[in-house]
Specification:
One of its GO terms (molecular function) is N-acetylglucosaminylinositol deacetylase activity. InterPro entries: GlcNAc_PI_deacetylase-related (IPR003737), LmbE-like_dom_sf (IPR024078), Mycothiol_biosynthesis_MshB (IPR017810). It is an enzyme of class 3 (hydrolase). With 301 residues, this protein is of the alpha/beta class. Strand 8 and strand 9 form a beta hairpin. It is 29% helix and 17% strand. The chain contains 6 helices and 12 strands. It is globular and about 55 Å long. The structure holds ligand LKMZNTP5 and zinc ion. Zinc ion binds next to loops.
Length: 301
């Protein structure tokens, strides 16, 4: 174990793997403490396997409980041993996609009191004392209300954890705050490869997808190719949400995506560390002429 401590805040079981799974596996394998906080149980998700359809919210409403098990299996696959649900399992419920009726439930994460939810995350931050925090950008990566709220709660907790006038425990200032990111150029190349591979999933035009950023916004590139097998295994663990046909996967909308082994991030707060030439495009990097951090802890230790 080294002294590196990485905290990730994700909205639902499966997001950790989709957006940062290879990176989590890499740092866990290198001996860092990787702590995952998941904000809901994913109670409102769709269910892919027909034999599990009864779990859905409008049937038995036991999908949240089932996804606790999926997430435990995914964390084991990633080598992540420290996982918490924000405020405890079921404290806040999956709000559903933007605009649906479940957004208005009293227990919806989207309606959570910001300082109350952030206060729960401050407890974890002051206990773990992470140097690095990762979550979504202000749009929640793709606009889901729970993802947007996760960004807001994480940012508020980032501020409060460092404030000696707030709450109990020793204040802790996190050195670097990152957003998960996906470069549109990488997405385009992936979509082209999917078309050529004639995969069984739908291939959408990148411009029609609700996520992706300009290459120039990326600050950090984590080459976790050595750990892609763990990411694929973790995706398989989330069987109600993800279909896997490596290196491709799809959610219940059946829109094909690539399980990237090189994952990108945007530094939102903190000082950028030393940069190196980006990995080649052929392996999923941004390629020339980009120079990026190749380590989330760059410049800290
Ligand atoms: C990756 C992610 O955030 N998944 C969420 C999302 O699930 C999507 C939702 O059910 C949508 O209606 C489908 O078309 C899409 O395929 C799903 O990925 O929203 C769910 C409800 O809030 C959430 O449980 C799931 O984790
Ligand atoms: Zn999600």
């Amino acid at each position: 174990m080294n002294d590196r401590r990485l905290l990730l805040v994700h909205a639902h079981p499966d997001d950790e793997t989709i957006g940062s799974g290879a990176t989590m596996a890499k740092y866990a394998a290198e001996g860092a403490l990787v702590t995952l906080v998941t904000c809901t149980l994913g109670e409102g998700g769709e269910v892919i396997p027909p034999e599990l359809a009864h779990l859905a919210a409008d049937r038995d409403d036991t999908l949240g409980e089932h996804r606790i098990g999926e997430l435990a299996a995914a964390c084991e696959a990633l080598g992540v041993t420290d996982h918490r649900f924000l405020g405890g399992p079921g404290r806040w419920r999956d709000s559903g996609m933007m605009g649906v009726a479940s957004n208005d439930r009293q227990d919806a994460f989207w309606r959570a009191d910001l300082d109350e939810a952030a206060g729960e995350l401050v407890k974890v931050i002051r206990e773990v004392r992470p140097q690095v925090l990762v979550t979504y950008d202000e749009n929640g990566f793709y606009g889901h209300p729970d993802h947007i709220k996760a960004n807001r709660v994480a940012w508020r907790a980032f501020e409060l954890a460092a404030d000696p006038a707030f709450g109990e425990g020793e204040p802790w200032r996190i050195a670097k705050f990152y957003f998960t990111a996906m470069a549109r150029s990488t997405m385009r190349r992936s979509a082209e490869a999917m078309r050529e591979a004639d995969v069984r999933f739908l291939v959408e035009d990148v411009d029609d997808l609700p996520f992706g950023c300009a290459d120039e916004e990326i600050t950090t590139e984590i080459d976790a190719r050595a750990h892609i097998g763990r990411k694929i295994d973790a995706m398989r663990a989330h069987a109600t949400q993800i279909s896997v046909d490596p290196p491709w996967f799809a959610l219940s909308n059946d829109i094909g995506q690539e399980a990237f082994a090189v994952e990108h991030f945007i530094l939102r707060a903190g000082t950028q560390g030393p940069t190196v030439p980006a990995a080649p495009i052929e392996v999923g990097g941004l390629g020339e002429p980009y120079k990026l951090e190749d380590d989330l802890f760059a410049g800290i230790d």
